[in-house]
Amino acid sequence: MRRQDAKFDNMVTLISDISVISLAAMVMGPICLRQNGRAIMATAAGNIEDRGLMERPPTQEEIDSAAHAATAIANAMDLDGGLKVSGENGMAVKIAPAVGHLIIELLGHVANGNMVTLVPVGTMLTTQEAADMLNVSRPFLTKLLLRGDIAFEQVGSHRRIRIDELMRYREEKAQRQEAALVELARLGQEFDRS
């Protein structure tokens, strides 16, 4: 009986850990857009029409529009091997396939109802911006930095985090979550057999 109790305790612990990880992963706060080295983020004041998609989820009209646009662009790229749009003076401008796919991916996120922000890979974030992206408190992020979980650079008395390092941490966290789910499934099957 003790062996089953230990298995049950392990399953409860895993369920608890996975629940916390899942909850944190499901809730994403707004992500700051950086332009010319400075973060652009409005306050929560103002109505929904005044704010961009980096600060609010898309409306149903925007979701439908993005879905139709993504489909139209994908079809145009399949037919022409690239995307052509009208530029200045009506001249056709060909958009490279890689850029076209990026546009489709962006529209796909909007079509799924997600808030969207574009951030260049080399962007350096403040601890508050990084904490917002992870949906954690700034003190908790600071603990992650000091523990060595996320690489950072010291700029004077301030810490700066590269966006690619933050994304690496998120990916590793997602992989740990996936491994925990697999382990939970294995323990569940083992528990059912005994």
Largest sheet: 3 strands, antiparallel
What would you call the structural class? alpha+beta
- Rg value: 22 Å
Distance between the termini: 10 Å
Query: Treating each run of at least 4 consecutive H or I residues as one helix, how many helices?
Result: 6
Please provide the ordered H/E string of secondary-structure elements: HEEHEEHEHHEEH
What integer is the average pLDDT? 75
Please state how the strands of the largest beta sheet are arranged side by side. 5-7-6
Instruction: Give the CA-based shape.
Output: extended
Which features does this protein show?
194 residues, alpha+beta, three-stranded antiparallel β-sheet, two-stranded antiparallel ribbon, 6 helices, 7 strands, extended
Question: What is the gist of this entry?
Answer:
This protein has 194 residues and is an alpha+beta fold.
Tell me what you see in this structure.
- This protein is an alpha+beta fold and 194 residues long.
- 57% of the residues lie in helices and 13% in strands.
- The protein is built from 6 helices and 7 strands; from the N terminus they run H-E-E-H-E-E-H-E-H-H-E-E-H.
- It has helices spanning 2-26, 60-80, 97-111, 127-134, 138-147, 163-193; strands at 33-35, 38-40, 83-86, 92-95, 124-126, 153-155, 158-162.
- The strands form 3 sheets. The protein has a 3-stranded antiparallel β-sheet with strand order 5-7-6.
- A hairpin with a 2-residue loop joins strand 6 and strand 7 (158-162).
- The longest helix is centred in the last third of the chain and has 31 residues, at 163-193.
- The radius of gyration is 22 Å and the shape is extended.
